Amino acid sequence: MVESKLSEIRPGFEIPALTKGPISRVQLAKYAGASGDFNPIHLDDEIATQSGVGPTVIAHGMLSMAFVAQMLTDWVGPVNLRRLSVRFTAMVRPGDVLTCRGRVEQIRTESGKTQANCEVWIDNQRGERVLTGRAVVDLPQG
Amino acid sequence: MSEAGTLPDEIRALIGRESPPVTVAVDTEQIRRFADAIGDPNPLYYNEDYARSKGFRSIIAPPTFLTTIGRWPWQRRDETLFRIPYGRVAIHGEQEYEWFRPVQAGDVITMTSRIVDIYEKAGRTGRMLFVVTESRYVNHLGELVAIARSTGIRR
Cβ separation of A61 and B92 shorter than 8 Å? Predict the structure, then answer.
């Protein structure tokens, strides 16, 4: 985080990208164990296939959201992330490499606080968009 | 968008249903395990001295750590409360968080969840049911930590 520069952010600014992966089955197991989300579509190929999301397990959507949140907190710091809303637009599978990106769309100052509205997204290694979203971050001035 | 009129009464009746509060004590190891699982090396999530030097009571949790609260069977008081008799698979469609302050190790977080909307849509693979749940998280100091809105899709 380079706080001194946050006051100079302008619309159109591209948030430093973050690449995660390749996603491994071990990471999905670790995420299940850490989050408590043991839905078998993330852990068991056979059940994933029977459930219609096969032929392999799919990653937890919340893991992708955590990646986008990390891109934002790497940029502004964890306490300055105010809002994040995402839509999971394609399934993520073991082996996928995910690149998180974002762009500042609008800067607004309200009651002395400056915030940036951002568009965020994740593309996989084939250029398919697996997540789209919007974020609001505080931009500390000074 | 909403075609609630076609929904069976037993499903429509779930709108507004609220879960009993779930209270969870957050410790350093839960936070570190979660940060490690998402692969985020930020020292605020691991190093207590560093986090204290930045003005926190202890290490803080990554923003989406809140998703872990209420997930475990022993934290839920009534398994059947949000059970929805529709489709054979549920996937996560959308998620939103608004954060007011970070979760810190040592916090005791209370979550209250409520189903705020249910609607049906025709999709590529047939009809799908969208269930929107809102959760509020409050810490042991009575401070609002975050509000989450989650959309699950059943088909």
Answer: yes
